[in-house]
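Posting for a labmate who doesn't have an account.
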Amino acid sequence: MFSVGKLALLAAIIVVVLMGFRLFSRNRTGSKEESRIAETVRCKICGVYIPKSGISPCDRDDCPY
């Protein structure tokens, strides 16, 4: 019924499938993280880091952004 060869083959298939899932999920999360990273600039007055692409005025009167 169960032979050593069949059990070894089943274990090898399970390991390959799990490694495939890990590789696939790693590639997907890596691309999402890269898309969320934005270049920032530090305000000389208040010291807050602001995204370079979406610079908007803050609440401070002396802040250049």
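Reply:
Got it, the structure tokens are right above this. Strands lie at 40-42, 49-51.
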